[in-house]
Amino acid sequence: MSLYTNTKLRENRLATTTTCCRINTAKYLKAFSFSSTVKQERRFSPTLSIITTELRFRYHLTLILTFLVSNNNNLRTMKSFVAVPENNDFPIQNLPYGVFSTQEDSRHRLGVAIGELILDLGAVKSFYPVQFHDALTATVLNPLMALGYDAWAEVRQITQNLLLEGSELHKNQKLQLTALVPQSAVQMHLPANIGDYTDFYSSIHHATNVGIMFRGKDNALMPNWKHLPVGYHGRASSVVVSGTPVRRPLGQTLPVDGADPAFGPCRLFDFELEMAFFVGGPPTQLGERVTTEEAAKRVFGFVLMNDWSARDIQKWEYVPLGPFTAKNLGTTISPWVVTVAALEPYKVENFPQVPEPFPYLRHEQKFNFDIKLEVDIKPAKGVSTTVCRSNYKNLYWTALQQIAHHTVTGCNVNPGDLMASGTISGDASDSFGSMLELSWKGTKQVQLLGGESRKFLQDNDEVLIRGHCQNDEVRIGFGSCTGVVLPAKPFE
What we know:
492 residues, alpha+beta, eight-stranded mixed sheet, five-stranded antiparallel sheet, 26 strands, globular, disordered N terminus
């Protein structure tokens, strides 16, 4: 290989490295005077140009890598003028979106969580480009979601700058009094108008456990499971925000196999540890597909989810069309939507997939995250017990594959659509994401602190789900997703 060819490859590699690192290549090469200088030197001596280009490659690559390290360190160490307590879920590196109101002002407003406060985006809209003002003063996140990937990045950058020490907001004490609201003084609401809700079944450990219980170890996974992200369309109208009580449902069950069905309150009421993401970007048209590559710019952000389940009702009704009333009774999500940008430092390798999926489901991009998840059960008169510790990275199918499969038929999606992971279980018994698994179909008790135990949820039990990412410097959290089980409402 000639020195000139090798140098050209290095130039190309520099451009590729620059692009992959999300640097504006043109801007920085112009700043470094790389292209123009090489062009001028080639007019005088090709040999000198080649040698100089090689030296310049090394020099400018060093500058770019130095910039990257510095920029990354800045992201880790940036400090807000808003005090953020240690181990708080909402440092300046997070900035999740939510919808809130106060007792003094019942309007639903968009906010960003920072420490123990909320930045009212409508109150600071003048700092953002005018084309974003309508979205920032909306009562739900749908208009912001619809703006698309580039707009999300710009809004996030401006918001981070506003909250930094020495910012215009930091200098304006009067504006802070109206723009920064204590979280303790607000009521949180659903973050979006959810047009459609899809629930997937993407944890291989959960699917295997359930399969073993009902079909045996040799037939645990259905033949289709490793070929496509299994899912079903849920009920968007019964998705509620954290803190909303959920009532034990009535329904038909089959207490004894072979006997007649019975009607009454669900006896096997359960939680399901899940996460869900909101779809963003402009609406797609009927007949339009979204590829896995395009899907990466369609995930607005993630929330925690509890997809409450009536196991005995589900067992009787799910054949042949799947869950119905056993799953439409209520689905709880956390109020804060954590963006993909905030989760970037916590990306991990995608779950290994064997056999290799069809081409439309393949992607090389990492879209799996190290999100630590916990579930607590708190009896009405007892103390809280952590019964499950799992992790989002246990999911076999990624969000990108879920979108690609959902739309491969040409199904249209809209900003604010909600897509859930399915129960997230690990391979250890204390990482099972449901009481069905923890009690192994009711064959053993799950011990709680204070001497109580459970096989399934009892009336007035509170279920609390938490999630966070953690590295040496920064904790990115999701807040909590809670709900209390109310007794069944009898017929008059």
